[in-house]
Each structure stands twice: as structure tokens, then as C-alpha cells.
Fold this sequence. Notes:
The structure is a single chain. This protein folds into 2 domains: 12-138; 153-324, no CATH class. Helix content is 66%, strand content 1%. The chain has helices spanning 2-10, 12-37, 53-74, 78-94, 98-106, 114-135, 153-177, 187-196, 201-208, 213-229, 251-279, 293-324, and strands at 181-182, 185-186. Strand 1 (181-182) and strand 2 (185-186) form a beta hairpin. The chain is globular.
Amino acid sequence: MKTLWSAWWRRWPHWVARATVLWAVLYAGFGLACALSGTALIYHGGGSGASGLGWAVVVVGVVAVSVSGAVVVYGLRPALRVMLWVVCGLAGITAFSLLMDVITLLFGQGVDSRVSAVNKVLAAVGAVLLAATARSGRLPAGTAVRAPSAAPRFVQLAAWAGTLAFVPYAAMKFVWASGGTFGGMSGAEVLAVSERNGASGVFLALESWGLDPTALLAVLGVFLLWGLVRPWGQVFPRWTLFLGGRRVPRWLPLVPALLGAATLAPYGVVGVGYLFLATAGVVTMRRGDFHSSGDALLVGWIGMVAFAVYGIALIVAARSYWLRTRRACRTGVLIGGSGGA
């Protein structure tokens, strides 16, 4: 069974276009159902959103059906590859903030809108399928697995930048979780705000124990980042040999890396841009749950810089991992070294 599965999976360039067609039909149908029923696909906090987005989903689905269907019939032509990447970009934009929904579910909280969450999941799956279809004509025959290698120095410097960007963020969270005061807010006030905003029992329990859940996720994010740039991120430890092999499947680190990068990088970059305008006095910084706009601005800078720098570093690291773990073109030869951008 495992051999049959491996053989089928290795033939993904031959079936991925058909899988993309099936996804596109499903996605277009989902958008049509939302549009005809007036169901909102964007949550605005008050339970209302733009139901017209359903028609945009229909358009994306129909275009995806046409392009991927043409790939099935005529093969992967240059013009079709360009269209696939365009639709992939649109699907990726639609899947924005999916990571935030995943985080809320991890801590036992419900998502703001189930329909919106389903739309993001479908869009994320479509982005992966569309990208795979666009790449399906570039896999050389008779390839060999590369030996684990480290990322180039530039990529590792980006990983250091992404790691250090989270230090002020983690320190701020630690101060609050330990009962201290930062940005005019005490740990007790932060805990009360979390409870008022509907935080789950798991989230509140961790906070009461001095463990901030978002800081723990930041640690996991840094672990993922370094796994993408160091050789150990491509090989399972010896004690995990029961998993069926020493090599780490490429999708295992790349899926969370791409999901995190697609959410945190634009969220952080846009947030930093807004904070620049607020600092310059062009726009007014909303106070939110803080005691003053200045406190909100300080905390905002710490959070948004961390998200932006880490998100960009994750993009750089994921691209390097993708390139370094591609199969080599010479059959039966393992190519190692620390090269590969």
C-alpha cells in the first residue's frame, strides 16, 4: 500500500491539473451559493459583510476551471502558466488571515465567521493546487534526492533578523504574563481584556500560569524558520525512524511556512505603514483597550515590526528550502554542499 501511494504521489504532475479543475468547480459553486443566498464572506465585527464577494469567488472559480481545463486538454503552455499564477495570486489574497483563524481554533475559540473561514481554507487549497499545476511541466524525469544542505549566508541572516524581531514582542508578552506592566497596561488588565473578548479557557489558563500563548507560538515560529535554513530541517531525528523514513517530506515545513508568510508578511507590512502614518500625525491611532493612543502606538510598533520582519524572513527561508530540496537532475547522484539559493 505504501509503495502504491508513493508511486501515485510521485506522479503528481500528471494528475494535479485535474485535481485543480475539481477544486475550481467546487469553489465556483461555493461562491455562487453564497452570492445567491446573500451570505457574507467578509466579517466586519458586526456580523455583516460584503455578500457581493461571492460573485468575485465565482469569477475566480470559473477562470480557474477554464485555465486548468485547458492545461488538461492542451498541456501546460506559457500563456496558461501565466494565467495560473495570476489566479493563484488571487486565491492567495482571498486566503489572507487564515492563520489567525487557525490560531483561534488551536486555543479553543470559535472563528468570527464559519463561512469566511471555509472560504479562506478553500482559497488556500486552490492556491497550492494552482501553483502546483503551474510548476507541473518543469519536473525533470529521472531525478535524484539531494543531500541535506544549509541555506546561503544571506538566507541565514534573514532568519536571524526574523528571530531577533520577535525578542521585544516575546519580552512584552512575558512582562504581561508574569503580572508586570507595559504600555500602561498591567498583566491583570490584559487578562481581563482577553476574557472580555471571548478568549478560551485554555488561553486564559496559560495566561494565568505566566505562559502567553502567542509568545509560545512565536517560539514555534522561530523553530520553523531555522528548520527551513539548516540541514536538520530536512531530516527526522534518529528516534523518529518509526515514522517510516529519515527524510522530512517537503510539504511538512512548507505548508505552515507558506501559510504563515502569506498572513504575517502583508499584515505586518501594512501595519507598519499605518504606524508610520500614525507616528507622523497623518492619521489618528485608535486607543482600543489601552489607556492612551501613545501606549497603543508603542505596542503596535513592537507587534507589527515583529510580524513584518518575521513574515519576510519566512518568505526568504521558504523559497530557499523549496530550491534546496528540489530533486537533482542527475539520476542516482546525491548532490550536497551548502549551495543553492
